[in-house]
Amino acid sequence: MSAATEVALIALALATLAVAATRVPGVARVFLIAQAAFWSLSYVARPLVLLWVQPDPHFGDNVPDPRLAQFGYDRGIALVLHHVVFGLWVYAGFVVAYALWARRHPPRELPALTRDPDFVPTLAAMYCVGLLGRAASIASGSIGSAGDVDSASPILSFVAILATIAALGLIIFVRPATPRLTVLIIGGLLVGELAWTAIVESKTPIIGAAMAIAVRFAILGWTRAKAIGVGVIAVLGIGGFGWLQSLKQTKYVKAEASLADSSYPPIVHPFLSILRRFDLLEAATDAYFHQPGLWLTPAETLRHASASLVPSQLLGAAKFQSGTAWAQDVRGASVDMTKVSVSLAEGNLNEGYVLGGYPGVIVCAAFTFLLLLAWAKALYSRFFPVVVLGLALTGASALFERGILGSMENLGKFLQAAVLAWLISLVVREYRRRTTAEASPAVRAPAAAPVFVGAVTIEKRESPWG
């Protein structure tokens, strides 16, 4: 089949996914539609740009892939998308089946912790702690960027995660007394996440914030105005990503980027920065050239996935890093990576194909779908650490561009963040308990004091007016 046919089949599978998602009640609908949009940028928009422009590969521009150009874009894209077409239709089948089941099993009306008076104050405290971690990372120059293998300061990076998790939690769960205050709080949180997106050169924070707004509306109820608002935020975030990136670039880097962009039509220029970040087509190309097998056995995959949930300090050994291993072993099979050290997003379908061929694609698609259902249930949990895990997944890329190994690595990191968040919640609850106790009178007078007069008991009552 031609590349256009493969892309059309992918677009049809994603449209099926999106339509089925509209029939799914609750917050799961939000992530399913977001997945369809995310994967369309990688597997539809980027191939269409390559087929239209036919750009020549050169240094500094990762949109054209030399391996695809060597085959010819039409033939090359058709070859590398076979397993993606199969996997997306399998995933769409899962969603359709779940939509038919879920219509008869609606979720709870409101998440359990919305009735907890300590919940939002705990999220606010987490956000303050996380902001301190972000500020310390900026001051110490230990800010990482997309694709970095190791963080310059793992502790500061870990603390900074709390700000992202808490920002998403506040966007979803904060309920101020007035609409104006609501707009101010959520607007401030959005600006903060947009700024952090530019600082760390990653699309994840702003996408997570947009997701949080959509989840908020899914809980409170959708209206046409809310749907349009979420769409506008998403478009502005994606379209403005290149402008935010340019704020940190030197004149030389800007000139180099302008030279790379000059080979594309002007209508594409605003979206080139974000298309370069949606690189799952490159991962699909990696998987095709590597072919199934010769990377990890099922036993090794299970062992590495399980070890990812254990802190390195307790494990006593360095953890397996799937993004780094993918760059070295899978992409390294067709691209010279000897002088490059980077961590890559592999994608669930691509990882599944390399690990086990088409059966592996089915397993990884099922894992991502089950993880999404677990996320949706976690937000409604009455246990604070479980809700934190759900919030962390809201702002992570696990459900979009990671496979089993990468998702388990994220979960291991988020489990540690959930423990720290739980400790903060204990401090906040104790502080609020003591504050409330000090504000209350220490000894209350009895409501009624009996007075004995002879053999007759007369009850003396306090006046309700004091």
Automatic annotation (TrEMBL):
Keywords: Membrane, Transmembrane, Transmembrane helix. Signal peptide: none annotated. The chain crosses the membrane at residues 30-53, 77-101, 155-174, 181-199, 205-222, 227-244, 357-376, 383-405. This is O-antigen polysaccharide polymerase Wzy-like protein. It comes from Nocardia tenerifensis.
